[in-house]
Amino acid sequence: MGTPSGGWARRSGVGSGVFRMTVCARKRIVRDYEQVSVQAETLSVPLDLAALFGRVAPVHVEIGSGKGTFLLDQAQAHPECDFLGVEWANRYYRYAVDRMGRWGLTNVRLIRTDATAFVRQSLGDETVEAFHVYFPDPWPKKRHHKRRFFQDQNVEQLWRALRPGGVVQFVTDHEPYYQSAREVIARQADRWQEVPFERPAGAAEGEIVGTNYERKYRVESRAIYALAVGKRPAMQ
Q1: What are the pLDDT digits (tens) for 173-186?
Q2: Which of 127, 129, 211, 225 suits 21 as a labelling partner, its CA being 20 to 30 A distant?
Q3: pLDDT surpasses 80 at 1
């Protein structure tokens, strides 16, 4: 995922209008689906999730949804839940929108925006059931560590937005980033408790989450690290 240079990107066209791009060797036309893609001007602040999905249901947010593999599998397996994907890379965002639309999923929405700003500014208190952060950019150079998503101020915002007992699941192939995430949680031990990691519906035997990145990294024999933490109630 890249670093955003600004806020929302306005798109033209509604319905299943054709995006001006193609993907894959076969040049598949990538289409927009207005029931899946979310435009900035339609959103309230804080975001009204019930209005966004047209119902009241548990909401899961994926930070960095990529091509939408997790969203597709999990939304199909859990129609009783709603899923909101946040992705900055335009190519992946458009591909995921097209993918959800082709499958006719009504419980998935996708937003192209900076995840840090979105969580801080758009999500209300205690509105989210779970956050999923799978294979985020590790920004391995020390001078770039401040760009990592999983750091103190962002994790504080996840805690604020989670419902009581809500969960954050984090997976990476980068061991130093994993250790850094554990240190963040340790510094906020009054807010979090470690819980068992719940494997998503799309994870095959021997997989943790079953995303494209995990499958690529396993072929390369990389180690995969997973962390799941639950929200503790606020200290009185």
Answers
A1: 999 999 999 999 99
A2: 211
A3: no
Q: Residue 221 corresponds to which tokens in the numbers above?
A: 């024999």
Q: Which fold has domain 38-231?
A: Rossmann fold (3.40.50)
User: Is 137 labeled as catalytic in the residue annotation?
Assistant: yes
Residue 215 has pLDDT above 70, yes or no: yes
Question: Is-contact 19 94, C-beta < 8 A?
Answer: yes
Residue pair 22/30 in contact (Cβ under 8 Å)? The answer is yes
In the numeric block, which tokens belong to residue 233?
Answer: 């109630």
> Which residues are CB-contacts of 30 (< 8 A; sequence separation ≥ 6)?
18, 19, 21, 22, 23, 94, 95, 97, 98
- Cα 218–Cα 219–Cα 222 angle in degrees, nearest 5: 45
The pLDDT value recorded for residue 2 is 40
Q: pLDDT (tens digit, 9 = 90+) per residue, 74-130?
A: 999 999 999 999 999 999 999 999 999 999 999 999 999 999 999 999 999 999 999
Q: Which of 48, 137, 152, 190 is catalytic?
A: 137
Both structure tokens of 39: 């435009």
Rounded distance, CA 162 to CA 141, Å?
30
User: What does the alpha-carbon distance between residue 66 and residue 50 come to, in Å, rounded to a whole number?
Assistant: 24
Q: How many other C-beta atoms lie within 10 A of the C-beta of residue 174?
A: 21
Yes or no: say if 135 and 65 are a contact pair by the CB < 8 Å rule: no
Residue 71: exposed, middle, or buried by beta-carbon count in 10 A (0-12, 13-18, 19+)?
buried
Contacts for 83 with CB less than 8 Å, ≥ 6 apart = 59, 60, 61, 62, 71, 74, 75, 107, 108, 109
What mean pLDDT comes out for the span 131-146?
A: 91
